[in-house]
Specification:
This protein has 195 residues and is α+β, with helices and mostly antiparallel strands. The protein has one domain: 60s Ribosomal Protein L30, Chain: A. Helices cover 27% and strands 34% of the residues. The chain has four helices and seven strands; from the N terminus they run E-E-H-E-H-H-E-E-E-E-H. Strands 1, 2, 3, 4, 5, 6 and 7 form a seven-stranded mixed β-sheet that branches. Helix 1 runs parallel beside helix 3. The radius of gyration is 18 Å and the shape is globular. The model has no long low-confidence stretch (mean pLDDT 94).
């Protein structure tokens, strides 16, 4: 049975200036949250979470990715992406993970944006209005620190104790005025100094 979605929530921001300097082009960041009933809530310890994953994750992925594409202007505009989940106070962290840590869910997004990097993620437990944080990275360049960004927002009435919030994030750029290089650059500099 597909996941029971109570509501979809979108949070969108566009940054034009960071500190004292204007951006050469605005950067838009979008988060889409699906507030779903926790299908494992109240059932005691459930040994195998996969039946619900097999039934619901792909459908949930399609709904959320369609909302992301609509809100950000299509796959071609996206440079960074990520995912997260928060389980309500009566759920297990593993319930949050089960909602999005599988290829049925993640590949829907990866394929639409033709990404090569894995979807960065967080999962945690929290109550209503908890901080929702979606870590993101570059679609293709996993070492590009310029695109290590986090979108943060909250939903006043979610998650309820018996709910899970599943989140997807997208950004049309990296951090404003990024200028700290990347992991590969660090490695080359350290190797040069060591030799």
């Amino acid at each position: 049975m597909p996941f029971d979605i109570r509501k979809l929530v979108s949070f969108k921001e566009t940054v034009f200036r960071e500190g004292e300097k204007k951006l050469s082009r605005p950067i838009t960041t979008l988060g889409v949250a699906a507030v779903i009933r926790n299908p494992w809530h109240g059932r005691g310890f459930v040994n195998d979470l996969s039946p619900e994953q097999q039934d619901g994750c792909a459908d949930l992925g399609h709904v959320m990715v369609a909302r992301i594409m609509e809100g950000i202007g299509g796959a071609a505009t996206i440079e960074a992406y990520g995912k997260a989940a928060v389980v309500g106070l009566e759920g297990e962290i593993e319930h949050a993970s089960a909602g999005f840590h599988n290829l049925r869910f993640g590949n829907v997004y990866r394929e639409v944006v033709a990404a090569e990097s894995y979807l960065s993620f967080t999962n945690k437990r929290g109550g209503a209005a908890t901080s929702l944080q979606i870590p993101m990275k570059h679609l293709h360049e996993a070492s590009a620190r310029s695109h290590f960004i986090t979108l943060e927002f909250a939903i006043a009435d979610a998650p309820a104790a018996n709910e899970i919030i599943v989140l997807l994030g997208a950004a049309t750029g990296g951090r404003a005025h990024a200028r700290i290089g990347d992991r590969n650059q660090d490695r080359k500099e350290m190797e040069t100094k060591a030799s």
